[in-house]
Design goal:
226 residues, single chain
Length: 226
Amino acid sequence: MIRRRRLATALVLCALAAPVAAAAEKLDWEVPESADAPVPVQALRNVRDGFLGLGDAWFEANTAFFGVFCLAASQLSMGFSDALGLVDDNPVSQHVLKGILSKNLAKTAYLWHVAGAESLLGGHGMEAERWAARDVAALNPLLSEEDQEAVAGPLPLDPLDFVGEGYFHGRTYRPQALLLDLGAVAAADVVLRPAASVLRIVQLRGAGDSLERTGNDLVRRAVRRW
């Protein structure tokens, strides 16, 4: 009984410490700066952040567009896999061919999917959610699987969604989500975030930050609708 109480206490402490650990996790490019710097220094920071923001939007747009391409390639590969599975993995042929073509195409589809998911989740402020908060949430014993998925997000899919037994792997097909991702990235990185950088350069820092958050949230909502 005492051991059980100690174990329960340890689990509760871990659960309470999880948000603190997630908040303490920082990314390499998060540099702390004084908030009460002199006005000329703040003005220089605004100009610096404005020009850097233009470059950041361009790079993240390329990464995100690459991610959308990878997800499309994944769905295409999975389509061929399911189609070929009717030939080399039906109740008769599976004892002879063992799904050699369909299973390898499914594995390829999964690799494309992982590359695309990581490319989309690795930008627009979602890095900490993907690489830090999710792992901490997974250690929280008080969170259900649904709660953990809400923190981690729906991407990437489980490998069994691609190679699990079945003739049709429906969870791997989300064409409407690809269009959402494509539109959100274009709106955020081609229009909103560059405009936010220009606002920072002309010393409208608050408006620029707000517009940047709007663009990032647009991409986040599109990805989480997957």
